[in-house]
Amino acid sequence: MATDCDYLIIGGGSSGAVVARRLAEKTTGRIILLEAGKSDEGDPAAVDLRRLDEQTADYDWGFRAAPLAGSPPLLNYARAKLLGGCANHNDCAFIRPPDSDFDLWEELGATGWNAAAMAPYWQRITDTITIETAPCHPASRRFIAAGLELGLDEVDFGREVRQGVGLFPLNAKGRTRQSSSVAYLHPIAALPRHLEVWTDCMASRLIIENGRAVGAETSRGEIRAARAVVLACGSIQTPQLMMVSGLGPAAHLTEHGIPVLRDLPHLGRHLRDHVAAPVVWETHEEVSGWEICPFEATMMLQLDKDAPAPDILFHFGLRVREKYDDARLATKGPAVKASPNVTRAVSEGSVRLSGPTMADKPVIDLNYFAEPADLDLLVKALKLTRRLGQTQAMAPLCREEVHPGPGVQTDEQWRQYIRSVCETVYHPCCTAAIGRVVTPELKVMGIDGLFIADASVFASLITVNINSAVMMVAERAADLIVNPRG
């Protein structure tokens, strides 16, 4: 027997939790929020920043991605599998996107998504969550001093995005994450009675009848929604769920024996992500003992002076996390790394099916450096990164550059190094973009009653870490679902 509701939200991550709470405030109909993973409430591994390493394999989907065209899927591509989503396993960097990001969205066809229109949604978020900077570790202070030594300003990135160096604003309250679940849903027992949170419940297929989304098949049976189905599964699994349900590129669906209900040729295409590559130094000084998270300091550079915003963003790490299976950045002792990423990388990858069900892991091709401009920009950034380690401020910390090492000198050597160790910053977006797959009201083109409210709808990659923009999209989505002109 089917369960009936008014609104069904699939995915309880950074966007889904926001949409659910705001819909509960705007409507009185029954709302069901589905999350395939466990609840984060009362789980210190999920909400305590210092206990991230206690998260086990069941907190993650275990996806792999191919970083380069034609390469095997060697890159661990973490996607959270719990209430609160990736905001419960990231490093909590939380910066307001510069106005130029949203203004570009409108130029690309996302009518009504300009910076002025989005400003109220940032205000709603900051009225709901706590944003702080972490206590600064001495090594992070050295990194900031190195930036000053190279002529940069110290910038409060909680107030502005421009070239400079400083600390990351964090969506955290002390050591406690301010993920969307913590800020919008906890305590779950105190939520409005018409909002139900179903954890450990996996959606396997959307139910489409006569061109309208009317529900989903799930691990707890069929759920039917009278008003709307909202997808908030993220930039990887939102396209996957749509494709296994018959929505997507017709030839690709046919290849997997899936009847085509709606040809959406752009679904799963145009995948964008922040690509990075590090310089790693073994250290003279102790770099443990950080208070909140190991990535406290950042630097933004505007290498292209005609760019509307910084084109490089750094994560300075007080430890080296290995993202490949084969320990490409291994060190013999304590180490730090500075990883610049291309903020508005233009190379596009894809998300495709490996089989006809949600149990078949998606094929993620990041296709980094398909556009040579991304690689050239990263070469320039890494040359400057090496200079950071040679400053008076950083020299007492940086005993030896171990990756790439002093043997890398020419531009071609830098390119080869970058291709071999390039990293994701885990910011996939644009796989169901506004103007290509959804309308500016976030309604899936050609299917009534189906909305998308996650990073897959981004019209382009944004300058900063994407979690803040994901929540802004979710805030606006709740308005648009209730009132398409909202």
Short account of what is shown:
This protein has 11 helices and 26 strands. It is an alpha+beta fold.
What keywords describe this structure?
486 residues, alpha+beta, FAD/NAD(P)-binding domain, Cholesterol Oxidase, domain 2, 2 domains, seven-stranded mixed β-sheet, 11 helices, 26 strands, 24% helix, globular, GMC_OxRdtase_N, GMC_OxRtase_C, FAD/NAD-bd_sf, Choline oxidase, flavin adenine dinucleotide binding
Please explain how this structure is put together.
The chain folds into 2 domains: 1-62 and 79-130 and 176-270 and 429-485, FAD/NAD(P)-binding domain (3-Layer(bba) Sandwich); 132-170 and 275-344 and 369-421, Cholesterol Oxidase, domain 2 (2-Layer Sandwich), CATH 3.30.410. By secondary structure, the chain is of the alpha+beta class. The mean pLDDT is 95. Strands 1, 2, 10, 11, 12, 13 and 26 form a 7-stranded mixed sheet that branches. It has a 6-stranded antiparallel sheet with strand order 6-19-20-21-18-24. Helix 1 packs parallel to helix 11 (467-482), helix 4 (115-128) crosses helix 11 and helix 9 packs across helix 10. Helix content is 24%, strand content 23%. The two termini are 35 Å apart. It is built from 11 helices and 26 strands. The protein is globular and about 70 Å long.
